[in-house]
Fold this protein.
Amino acid sequence: MTVRNYQKDLEKLIEKNMQEEKMPKLLLHSCCAPCSSYVMEYLSKYFQITIYYFNPNIFPPEEYEKRVREQENLIHKMNLPGNVKLLEGEYKPEEFFQMAKGLEKEPEGGERCFLCYEMRLRKTAQEAVRGGYDYFATTLSISPLKNAGKLNEIGEKVGKEWGALWLPSDFKKKNGYKRSVELSKEYHLYRQDYCGCVYSKAERTKNL
């Protein structure tokens, strides 16, 4: 069975747009500033980027506020081509808890996480259509702990539902994760020690 190389797919798409002298508009869902750092550095040469910060899974509210302000500050600090913008989605944690009902004991990286990806990517697809973006994507695949194949599968699925074009990606490739760590140090970013939700926080605490 051939494993799809999403990074190669992305490179082909970028090359095609460059040949046509296009600078498409991209709505890029971001999970956090550290993960977005490399992705913005990489993609801002080829896309007009708006960072979409929609993460109702983050707990507690103080943590959410800390992470979104860190995202905003990083956009201002980085010397990026083009004018990267920030669009903050609504923070309604009750939507996440409703989605996770019955899956509270699922391990990290399991079904609860997949549904969380889908919740956030579906909203990103909706916003991409509403805002007239050419593509939508997420920074989530930069993490070695995230399933890039599943993320791309979900992105393509919700994109078809809403008529939005999904940007294939696996940002951990080409040393993306390593570069994000370097940029985090360079910009003194807050690097959280759990994914974001109350369940990942509890699992992290249990394993300390």
Remarks:
- Strands lie at 25-29, 48-53, 85-88, 135-138.
